[in-house]
């Protein structure tokens, strides 16, 4: 069953548990703009990470908060999806 969170420590712990790292879509990432953020799983054969560039957790969470995002995730798998906090609120209703 999936859960939704905006808590940085929860996200970092979940990602770490599954070998995840903070990333940006390479074609959208440059020095002045982090771009589109993702969590990549470099050791997972099913993870498509060729087009991603690893970034720091600080960069990830700054963009995460600036854009008002939330993470939907399954604690027992690699499933995750970054959504707007507004969508997360609507999901709870």
Q: Tags for this entry?
A:
three-stranded antiparallel beta sheet, 30% helix, alpha+beta, 6 strands, 93 residues
Break the fold down into its secondary structure elements and pairings.
Blueprint: E1 2-5, H1 8-17, E2 21-25, E3 37-40, E4 52-54, H2 57-66, E5 69-74, E6 80-84, H3 85-92
Antiparallel strand pairs: 1-5, 2-3, 2-4, 5-6
Q: What's the gist of this structure?
A:
The chain is an alpha+beta fold and 93 residues long. The chain has 3 helices and 6 strands.
Structural summary, described in words:
With 93 residues, this protein is α+β, with helices and mostly antiparallel strands. The chain has one domain. It is built from three helices and six strands, in the order βαβββαββα. It has helices at residues 8-17, 57-66, 85-92; strands spanning 2-5, 21-25, 37-40, 52-54, 69-74, 80-84. Strand 5 and strand 6 form a beta hairpin. The longest helix is centred in the N-terminal third of the chain and has 10 residues, at 8-17. The protein is globular and about 35 Å long. The two termini are 17 Å apart. The model has no long low-confidence stretch (mean pLDDT 88).
Q: Based on CA inertia axes, which overall geometry fits?
A: globular
The count of β-strands is 6
What is the overall number of helices?
3
**How much β-strand is present in the residues?**
25-35%
Q: What's the number of domains?
A: 1
Element order: H for helix, E for strand: EHEEEHEEH
| Secondary-structure class | alpha+beta
Strand order of the largest sheet: 1-5-6
Instruction: Output mean pLDDT.
Output: 88
| Unreliable sequence segments | none
How far is the first residue's CA from the last residue's CA?
Answer: 17 Å
